[in-house]
């Protein structure tokens, strides 16, 4: 059994100083570390750049046994593991882009219990070769960490269905371990609205979690929304803004891979130093672009939301949303890349005027998003009529190809329960929960045209109602 034997706080601080070189923890890092060392569940909401990863990495390194870090993006995993390896720490990652020898090496280290941290996606965690290793009785597992936990809400019902099965993981692992084994589950994110927090707790089946919630307000970030009328005006506004930044580092966010490629080409033709960045590029190319951007030889990248998570560059002076994101939580994540050094940073979002008469792009993207949600719901309702009362996911996928997302939606609606990560039972009744995606999308649209303080709008949306008194003094609304 993995008995809880916490090191002394003196040892904790000494190891923290030795590995990361900081004198002391920032609040509430110390409290979170104590919580995880005591094998308690936690939900942690800390702004981007607040030092979340240390909160689960340090407890993992201080204990005998393994901590699983479930992470959404290969780039995010690679960046965190690379930093740990540079410090000669026992961490590894598993993902689909590894070569067979690399994968075998990690699985061998896992089996020999030579790792303290293993980063992997939800899909990799639930793949048979990995799962067979994790359920070995002798393998000590201390904690399951869900990093960037907002992705469970944003993606779990739409195209990353494995997220919805994570709540059954702890129970299934404990069934294979010695009696008395404790495994904590903790979710970390910078952005989760109150309704999303509830979903995260329910899906992960957190047990009396300690909740750590830091105000997301960043007074050095200056948000602004510019209404534009035509596609050409959008490009003109972008170039004018970038030129005003005088070669300082920044990011331009778009919504699709093709948008990233096409806009980067156009900006390069205009003489700007830029590269596209998205999940369609191979790992080596992404690392090259990241390195150039981090060392300042590349001023900015035109990126999708695949860029930014886990990449720590303190001096990002500006972020432009060339296309507005669909969800308010996405927007807060992406502006969080700016101004991590505490110095002033400008945020610009370009949006079409409300009718979309001359520039219908934003409207079409939002309609596509809404139609996709509606279509997926219809498919789930149809599948519910055909599914057996009990089933195993591999067999179901053979009988009903492309049904994984429908299973997630049925789970969301309370019509299906995961007995373990691979077997379900259907439930009578169910419920019609609020569609958090649609709710967040509506709030995003309200944010475009709000007449009130933009920071107060964001704080209210994330449950911090009276933090500013309605006036930040540095968004476009307050400055007017």
Biggest pleated-sheet summary = 7 strands, parallel
Share of helical residues? 40-55%
Task: Work out the strand percent.
Answer: 15-25%
Assign the structural class, choosing from mainly alpha, mainly beta, alpha/beta, alpha+beta, or little secondary structure: alpha/beta
Task: Report the oligomer.
Answer: single chain
Distance between the termini: 62 Å
Using the alpha-carbon principal axes, give the shape. globular
Quick one: how many beta strands? 16
Ranges where pLDDT stays below 50 over 5 or more residues in a row are none
Spatial order of the strands forming the largest sheet: 3-4-2-5-6-1-7
What is the radius of gyration? 23 Å
Number of helices: 20
**Which whole number gives the mean pLDDT?**
90
Considering the chains and any ligands shown, give keywords for the structure.
480 residues; alpha/beta; seven-stranded parallel β-sheet; six-stranded parallel β-sheet; 20 helices; 16 strands; globular
